[in-house]
Amino acid sequence: MINFNYESEFTLENEEAIASWLSAVIVSENKTEGEINYIFCDDEYLHKINVEYLNHDTLTDIISFDYTMGNEIGGDIFVSVERVLDNSKDYNTSFDEELKRVLVHGVLHYCGYKDKSEADEILMRSKEDEKLTMFHVEQ
After folding, report:
1. Under a CB-based contact definition with an 8 Å cutoff, are residues 43 and 8 in contact?
2. Cα 82 from Cα 131, distance rounded (Å)
3. Is the dihedral of CA 48, 52, 56, 62 positive or negative?
4. CATH class of residue range 2-138
5. pTM of the model as a whole
6. Euclidean distance between CA atoms 60 and 54, whole angstroms
7. How many whole angstroms separate alpha carbon 106 and alpha carbon 75?
8. Interior CA angle at 99 toward 97 and 100, to 5°?
9. 19, 25, 65, 87: which has the fewest Cβ within 10 Å?
10. 39: helix, coil or strand?
11. Which residues are annotated as a binding site for Zn(2+)?
12. How far is 96 from 109, CA to CA, in rounded Å?
């Protein structure tokens, strides 16, 4: 089950479409959907989590806590809406596209994809692009 929670003024306009797409992404990776909670927040909220739990004193767009067990993926994914907005400007893309990229990025981590090395990052970007295409096909 995919849940959306809000710790900021932001709310998704198309929760059902996003949840359906993310569910399809999980199936396309031969995984089973467990409970995935997205928590939308601001920079300050996510920064506190980054410092307290990860000992990183930086701003970030996403932090995920992975509770995957075997083939059933699940976890809590915190998303800074402020960071996504800034990144969309930096990468010259729409807020909607950048938000979908971040949302699928979290799920892809749960599916086993990493982004620490350059090779891993290239594969992650490729998978993000592939899964973003799935959203456009479904709509």
Report:
1. no
2. 23
3. negative
4. alpha beta
5. 0.91
6. 12
7. 9
8. 65
9. 65
10. strand
11. 105, 109, 115
12. 20
Q: Report residue 137 as tokens.
A: 């096909």
Q: Computed from CA positions of residues 68, 115, 108, 4, in that sequence, does the dihedral angle turn out positive or negative?
A: positive
The CA distances from residue 78 to 36, 92, 131, 133, in Å, are: 11, 23, 20, 23
At residue 19, what is the residue type? A
Do residues 113 and 66 make contact, with C-beta atoms less than 8 angstroms apart? Answer: no
User: Residue with structure tokens 């809590």?
Assistant: 76
Which long-range contacts link 58-62 to residues 24+ away (Cβ below 8 Å)? Answer: 59/83, 61/87, 61/102, 62/102, 62/105, 62/106
Q: Could you tell me how many residues make up the chain?
A: 139
Beta strands 62-66 and 32-41 are unpaired
pLDDT > 70? residue 59:
yes
- For 12-29, how does the pLDDT look when each residue is reduced to its tens digit (9 = 90+)? 989 999 999 999 999 999
